[in-house]
Amino acid sequence: MHISERTKNIPTSPIRKLAPIANKAEKEGRKIYHLNIGQPDIETPDSFFKATREFRPKVLEYGKSQGREELLEAVQKYYKEWGMDYSLDNIYVTNGGSEAISFAVMTTCDPGDNVLMFEPFYANYKSFVGAYNIRINGVPTSPDDGYHLPPEEEIEKYIDSRTRALLISNPGNPTGVIYTEEEMKLISRIVRKYDLALIADEVYREFVYDGKFKSFGSMPELDDNLIIIDSVSKRYSACGARVGCVISKNAAMDEQLLKCCQARLSVSQMDQAGAAGLYTTPKVYWETVRKEYARRRDAIRTALAAMPDVVFSQPKGAFYVMVKFPVDDIEKFAKWLLTDFSIDNETVMITPGNGFYVSSPELGKDEARLAYVLNCDALKRAMYILGEGLKQYPGRTR
Ligand SMILES: Cc1ncc(COP(=O)(O)O)c(C=O)c1O
Questions:
Q1: pLDDT band at residue 374 using 50, 70 and 90 as cut-offs
Q2: What's the CATH code, domain 5-43+284-392?
Q3: What is the pTM of this model?
Q4: Which residues approach ligand 1 with their CB closer than 6 A?
Q5: Rounded to 5 degrees, what are φ and ψ at 93?
Q6: Whose CA is nearest to atom 13 of ligand 1?
């Protein structure tokens, strides 16, 4: 049987690549602190489970391709509270933010086209675009200036006749960056000048620790170009529900999005009912959760600041931090932590940074992404183990 080149070219997720080694270590009885994956340990609000318990249809039908009415209305109301007005025809329920991204690139790019992204970017973006033979034009950013954007004319150098979209996560995974209003205006100018789609992945919108979040959806001049990616996964700690949505005010785009939804028939009715329930969760939930993540952010940056020769930029949002370690090869270090190192039979798992870059295989070779999704005590212990591992690692460069 022939296996297509394009699926062969999809990289293994760097976030899950070391999973078999970690599974083996866990089977052998070693405890692993998972700093590698954005799976929050915060309890999913009971509103999800209550709504699914109350969901008792006589027949479990496909339902509408666009999504269940009660969920579309809940999303519409949520956006209104953020000061953004969307009609129900602008909102399309998807299998998580992941499918929303796939739909967005599929509807804006043809094979051979390219999407502009700021490196380092969420590693799975490579898979979403790779599956459609779409390329990435990676624009470098650096921890030295907090992964903020390069000047406008620098970004423009990465745009060519096949560039169709700019895909950006704000707050940023894996960097924790929050773009300033000036940067958002810069992006808005660029996408309008070149008539690109702006695919704004705002799944971490609630996770901002310093200051307020501004959505690209609040910039009316972007209405024609903007596609918003959204999800309940992180917002309500409901990653397993697999419910997200893609939103656009561009009527021509909406027509295409509806066809994408029709082709995959529908999203799980039960999970959509649960997700609609989630949107009734009192807002105090976010206050509590945000405070908890802010504590974790503080704990991880204190621990990192105490590690000699480690470089990182202060994370401002989401729940990740990109870290430069004084090691020969981050993948070797990450493996070594799982196979050759432990303290009292406990170790840590980190995500090698090279998967978050595309423009050169050298980029990210000494970087890792850490997710601060563990409670503060577990996180402090994990960071202690990581620090000791770094001291003992034979491939240390300093
Ligand atoms: C930036 C970003 N976008 C999208 C997703 C996809 O999330 P989901 O498909 O669970 O909604 C993730 C998951 O980690 C993410 O970090």
A1: very high
A2: 3.90.1150.10
A3: 0.95
A4: 38, 96-98, 122, 169, 173, 201, 203, 231, 233, 239, 244
A5: -75, 140
A6: 38
